[in-house]
Amino acid sequence: MNKVNPSQQEIAMTSNQEQLTAAAYQQNRMASTEEGIGVCGWVLVVLSYILCALTFPFSLCFIIKVVQEYERAVIMRLGRILPGGAKGPGLFFVLPCVDSIIKIDLRTVTFNVPPQEILTRDSVTVSVDAVVYFRVFNPVMSVTNVANAHNSAQLLAATTLRNSLGTKTLHEILTERETIAHLMQTHLDEGT
């Protein structure tokens, strides 16, 4: 018989629950995209096509969009993300009055974490600041799951800095900078 520590069992159960939750989310998302936009939505889309055709030369200014090499465009038609995910780079068409476009920058962004006053484990007050580099890997998830990805990443970095350094002594902070940096990176990767 194979014995497993209770903590390993809890981790395995948590991992299985996360997988089931992710699978249920994907199934729900697929069902919602299969439902479509409904009859009223199709009527609005057809009217938008007719409007574009009637005002053809003038409407080109509104239906042609360009996305740079380092950007992706998440297009929502009547509040739902279009199938195929993010568009770009290059030239693409949108329907006026029906589609809304959100451009996401995929370049690496840097920001300073403001100096944090931290009380170490040996009761020494330390002022620590940091620099965080991050970039968006999945533009659709960035738009649908987080209201403001840049601000959220900055707040998470400040909180992680305070939490990870609050458990260390001053000597550990000064001598183990690299291990603390790797620990923070893993916490930030999990959080984002």
Automatic annotation (TrEMBL):
<keyword id="KW-1133">Transmembrane helix</keyword>
<keyword id="KW-0812">Transmembrane</keyword>
<feature type="transmembrane region" description="Helical">
    <location>
        <begin position="42"/>
        <end position="67"/>
    </location>
</feature>
<dbReference type="Pfam" id="PF01145">
    <property type="entry name" value="Band_7"/>
</dbReference>
<feature type="domain" description="Band 7">
    <location>
        <begin position="62"/>
        <end position="192"/>
    </location>
</feature>
<keyword id="KW-0472">Membrane</keyword>
<dbReference type="InterPro" id="IPR001107">
    <property type="entry name" value="Band_7"/>
</dbReference>
<dbReference type="InterPro" id="IPR001972">
    <property type="entry name" value="Stomatin_HflK_fam"/>
</dbReference>
<comment type="similarity">
    <text>Belongs to the band 7/mec-2 family.</text>
</comment>
<dbReference type="GO" id="GO:0009898">
    <property type="term" value="C:cytoplasmic side of plasma membrane"/>
</dbReference>
<protein>
    <recommendedName>
        <fullName>Band 7 domain-containing protein</fullName>
    </recommendedName>
</protein>
<dbReference type="InterPro" id="IPR036013">
    <property type="entry name" value="Band_7/SPFH_dom_sf"/>
</dbReference>
<dbReference type="InterPro" id="IPR043202">
    <property type="entry name" value="Band-7_stomatin-like"/>
</dbReference>
